[in-house]
Amino acid sequence: MSEAPELIRGLEGVVAAETALCDLDGAGGRLAYRGYDIADLARRATFEEVAHLLWRGDLPTKAQLDAFSAELVAARPIPDGLHAAFRLLPKAADPMRALQLSAAMLGALDPDAADNSPEANVRKAMRLTSQLATAICTHHRIRLGKEPVPPAKDLGHAANFLFMLTGERPPAVNARAFDASLILYAEHEMNASTFTTRVISSTLSDMHSAIAGGIGAIKGPLHGGAGEAVMLTLKEIGRVENVDAFVEKALGAKRRLMGFGHRVYRAGDPRAAVLRGLAEEACRLSGEGMWFEMAVRLHERVNRAKGLIPNVDFYSAPLFYALGIPVDLFTPVIVAGRIAGWTAHLLEQYQDNRLIRPRGKYTGPPRRQFVPLERR
Ligand code: CMC
Fold first, then answer.
1. 173 lines ligand 1 (CB under 6 A)
2. pTM score of the predicted model
3. Does the annotation count 262 as an active-site position?
4. Which of 71, 72, 126, 215 has its CA 20 to 30 A from that of 233?
């Protein structure tokens, strides 16, 4: 084909849009949201502060944060219709499908459904962030045959999530670790799911539709689904003593090891370094230290043998497990963080939109004569 000059498989290295949200230095292994290093944000900020930073451009003052948090709290309840929809799903339904359904249904029921103005989209970003968290926990409890736990107005976003999931107020240390992990997942430049949301919004489709698409994209094991796959790998290994033999066999069989490797980071994923510390503490406190030890040994062995780095989904697996999050909720939890970044990207895309429409390189047969059905 003569019109499309160059084929770039997987769009590797292609710069598809401008963004003021995330400064990702792949060679240096550094990451900042609007100029703030993610290690500082994870240690010292809350998810609410980071959402404010992403949507509104800067960290909030105390008064701004109070007002902003109150808006997020007010947006937490989900419509009865969504509860009813969860009850119609088979108990075995994948929670990511329930989440995709949630995005679509919340879109249908949103008071700004027909309004694509910047003001309405900021309101939708806030509602989606609060409501998807409630939806994840509500669906989980309904599938277990338990009553949903209504959101607690006096808890922050992260603590409230754990409360709605378990019905118990989490220890402060767990809420803090979970808060930090939501921050670390909140934004990551032009990854596959964020790009998906931007592609959808570039047609001037609405925010909820874009988010439903993003949920579909992040679910795959090469993307956010890797965290769940890491935990299944650790369970498959079973004991620290089995790690070496597992690695030898897996690499010999050219098996793809989940939670390792990255398209952009070569020297190391800075999020993994923070998550490693969080996982160590959470595993120790919960008496699940074995998973952390196993993960560290796996990391060392795979890195030594193949030079692969652990990515964000590697140490988040033992962390989430130690926090009591069911393994098939790892990816929904990642969405609960990433929704802040997705929606911030959508606000950027709508503000300076250009339809995203690349070309394909044709590899089929040359032009040929049409043959009528009766002569084929
Ligand atoms: N296990 C074994 N080999 C690997 C892995 C891995 N996890 N990752 C990369 N490689 C090898 C790959 O086989 C290839 O080797 P060779 O050149 O000999 O064929 C080389 O490294 C380059 O790999 P690639 O697949 O061409 O690189 P990519 O940029 O397309 O892949 C990736 C990036 C993340 C898809 C890949 O590293 C992978 O599949 N990792 C496992 C899944 C995973 O952890 N995904 C989460 C990614 S980070 C969080 C997120 O995006 O949500």
1. no
2. 0.96
3. yes
4. 215
